[in-house]
Amino acid sequence: MIKTIYWTSNNKVRLIDQTRLPLEEVAIDCCNHHEVADAIKTMKIRGAPAIGVAAAFGVALVAVKSRASNTNELVREIDEAAEILSSTRPTAVNLFWALKRMTEVARAGSHLSVARLKSVLKDEALAIADEEREMSQAIGRHGAKLIADGDSVLTHCNAGALATVSYGTALALIRAAHAGGKRIHVYVDETRPLLQGARLTAWELTREGIPMTLICDNMAGFFMSRGLVQKVVVGADRIAPNGDVANKIGTYSVAVLAKENDIPFYVAAPVSTVDLSIEGGQDIPIEERLPGEVCEIRGRRIAPEGISVANPAFDVTPARYVTGIITDRGVVYPPYEETLSGILGKARSKT
Ligand code: MRU
Predict the structure, then answer these.
(1) Which of 33, 90, 100, 215 could share a disulfide with 285, CB 3.0–4.6 Å?
(2) Counting atoms of ligand 1 from 1, which one is nearest the CA of 234?
């Protein structure tokens, strides 16, 4: 089993350095929240649910290592760390969701002793990681029912164990269908510019013997038009209450191609990815990353010097292209304004 990120017995955060996969399988330890923030920013850890767990662990590191003499001081340190962690990547809402949960727990525990609050915060981060693991399993169970024996499924980016604590979201249902004995084949988009599909999804699937074919992003339409893809399943970094979905750049193009070819397009994500504080996809901040990621491949220049380069890391797929959203609480279908709020429960507080 892939263990993407976990808390060690000597109070460190251990994570697989995803920038080195698939060539090297190396785990690194983060000893403080600055190291966690750096790991998120440099994408040693990436994928919306994994980023959320990393941020919660970053806050827990502050708590267990704090020398605060009173609880107010500890809460202040937690708030400062949350601020630093929240500035790492803007699109995945799980980051802000986890930080909000940790800072709220800190504030609610301000009447406790310093020692007690430290352990409450560590337990909360561990609970977030456990819940994330369970949500992946539940997504797998619900989503596998949508996969028929013999299906070829296309996926984009990496929404696997490496993007969560283990098991994944889009890959969770592929894993569950495969484990349930369904013959399944996966078309893996390479996912330029950072190649999460080629480097990470291909690594995960081959480790488990799930049949797959790696394709360049611009080949997806070719395979769809030839009737070789029966379903598309992707993850999400943020889902608006109206069903608009932000995910890795290129997802929108895949969704449009799927609709053109009458192929169901599913999004798999835990409910912590739904952002009730916004109205639609237009409100989702899109991360712009450095141009070097586009005009270099693994440090080697592939384009002329001095040119203009754009590098949005995500795009928004309008809800009208989304056949269904597979959550840990079940699969929802349009109209998402009703079905998403139904599944989340009207009482859930806004993020
Ligand atoms: O830039 P990344 O690699 O963090 O982007 C990841 C994605 O777009 C994933 O599809 C998304 O976070 C869902 S992961 C379960």
Answers:
(1) 90
(2) 10
- Please identify, among 137, 153, 174, the residue that sits at the C-terminal boundary of a domain: 137
* CA 335 and chain centroid, separation: 24
CA of 49 from ligand 1 middle (Å) equals 8
What CATH number does the domain containing 238 carry? 3.40.50.10470
Cα of 194 vs centre of ligand 1, distance in Å, is: 11
The closest-lying atom of ligand 1 relative to the alpha carbon of residue 169 is 15
Q: Is residue 48 lining ligand 1, measured as CB closer than 6 Å?
A: yes
Question: Residue 90 is part of which domain span?
Answer: 5-137
Per-residue pLDDT reduced to its tens digit, 284-311:
999 999 999 999 988 899 999 999 999 9
Q: Note whether 131 and 166 are same-domain residues.
A: no
Report pTM: 0.96
Report the distance separating Cα 168 and Cα 180, nearest Å: 16
Count Cβ atoms below 10 Å from residue 27 Cβ, excluding itself: 13
For residue 17, the domain's CATH number is 1.20.120.420
Phi-psi domain of 6 (left: phi exceeds 0; alpha: psi -120 through 50; beta: other): beta
Condensed to tens digits (0 to 9), the pLDDT of residues 58-75 reads 999 999 999 999 999 999
